[in-house]
Amino acid sequence: NIYIKYEGTPLKADEYTRALHERYPKNLFYSLRRSEVLFAKKEYAEAEKIAHELYKSDKKFFVGCACILYGMLYEEFFKNPATSKLFYTKALQLFKETQNPEIDYLSFAYAGLGRYYNQIGDKKMAIAYYEKCKEIAEYATLIKESEAFLSKNKWEVKKTPYTFPFGFIFVLLQ
Fold first, then answer.
1. Beta bridge partners of 169
2. Is the pTM of this model over 0.70?
């Protein structure tokens, strides 16, 4: 977990997550951590199997995490941003319905939606989601991603229309 979350080196966690997942296959937290490593290794088929296990659990937190995994799968592997957005949005809804203190996965949904809105050219929404991500993210990779995006794009957020006397409308960037 330290490798995955705080150091941003999930590949170093491979042997540990594999051993835990194999030894305790019904432990959904171990399965979830294993899926993170599989995504980092780009082993999408195996990660999808775990996402399916989590989805079938009928526990809102794990179904929400499965939606995030499916969102990542559709974003990274299938290159289908519209479907990834649906999964990330569903994850947000499910996390609102649960009282689980593990909100760090919520930051994955916010980052995914930030990437989606950036891809379609809606910088304002992208910035809003990256700001939400940055507020709660504990994962080093998500913190770095959101800070990089915000430092590069945040100046574009506030645009104030201003009308000059000649009827021309200019946009002042702050």
1. 163
2. yes
